[in-house]
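Example with several molecule types.
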Amino acid sequence: MAKAVNVFSQRVQRVSRASLASWLRRIVFFAALLTLWELIALSGIWPDYLFPGPIAVFSTLVAGVSGGLYLQAALVSLQRLAIGYGISLVIGLTLGLLIGRIRILEETVGSLILGLQALPSVCWLPLAILWFGLSEQAIIFVVVMGALFSITLGVDAGVKNASPIYLKAARNMGARGVALYTQVILPSALPAILNGLKQGWTFAWRSLMAGELLFFTLSLGNLLENGRDLNDASQVMAVMVLIIIIGVTIDALVFVPFERSVRERWGLQG
Amino acid sequence: MFFQSQVSDAQRARPASDVDQPIPGGMPLRIEGVSKTFPGRTGTVEALRPVNVDVAPGEFVCLLGPSGCGKSTLLSIVAGLEVATSGTVWADGRKVHGPGTDRVLLFQEAALFPWLDVQRNVEFGLRQAGMPARKREALARRFIELVHLKGFERSYVHQLSGGMRQRAAIARALAIDPAILLMDEPFGALDALTRDRLHVEVESIWAATRKTVLFVTHNVREAVALGDRVLVFSPRPGRIVREFRIDLPRPRSLEDHTLVDKAAEIVAVLREAIGDQEREEVHEWRKR
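Resulting structure tokens for the full complex:
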């Protein structure tokens, strides 16, 4: 046991040294990039309002966030994302399970979803506006269309590839009905489902931004559009940075830990 | 002795003097004309010719045969996980219609759930039976101790060795308290040393619980070391070619010369069955 711990700590040390070096390279790269950006902006090739430097963008970002406007916009967007993603999650899990387990649904609904998955979710936007008008529902509809098919196909793939021996063992030990689905089929499909959830989330986030560009309430997408109207490239860039930060944060806080815990349990590390 | 006290604690108390005498702790099992054919590319494939076996309660029966002789299929049918093409399985006088917790199957791959730790794996069947959390936790812990996995309750499957996985799978099966244990080459993928140790453990668990055991293997040593009876299967399509009763005292030593003689005798029968099959195939081929 002590030996195992020792080996483990050695490995941690080695890993941390390697990751320190990689972080260092990353920091140097981004510092160089920002410097280059600032230099180009300072050179005056393009006017300030079209090509602001990182310092100007950063100060716009700080002003926008501390003024509360950006945070309020972010909250509105995140709320839509949560509602849209939540709906896709419920429908996608159910649909994926059914398609994965029932042959006739796979042949019919499954192929339909495969086709719809090939359609970029922004293509739903005109239809959404026709059906729901320029409304909250239209945006959420687009977000759902963005995430739903990825989640469904992820669950479907997970259920289909799950080793049948788990199902046999579970039935043999008296599992049936709903318990079979919630305690065996879904968890055994978790690694593949996770891929679908992740892909669904990135599609949802993208669709949301596309939808919000058309929509005139306070939101991240609308702040972008607003920056364009005002000829204020530094606001556009500041909001873009904010969108990146939110995206990366959600990934790091939700999906990375989730993925890590699945990988650790399954022993898929490395 | 160690096991016996533990198991009887968990299950039912048995006087030590009764160990030599099979006690009806398990169920009787009757396999009546069970056969299996699969649809194949060139017509139907016959996997198992009608098989008749009568197993007494608490008897340890080994099904021995080359790979692909349908013995695993037979076990699946008894477990109720596959449907027989013909024939009937009777467990305790009742017709088998589907899987039931009176007959639990152990797989070669252990089939532990990778998303649950050892403790939760062992609790799985108890949870399905609706046992309250605290009770099943305690019961599972007792069976984990029984198979010497104390300290690994929180480990996940990939952290266990092959032998430990089989121990966990045995604990998981025993926790349900089935009357019939169906073991499908459970130690087939293990090294010889681990296998021998697990034989000793399985034998003492069986001696203490007197469950009816059907044990599938292609290893003659394993069959003679464990079985009260060894049924030798021919290659596909499988059928029973010979039956050996092994009345040697337990625990058996694999160095014991009577055991070695018995094993040699069984090997000879097995060889002949495989040879017959090959001759038949050549004959069939020539006819075409």
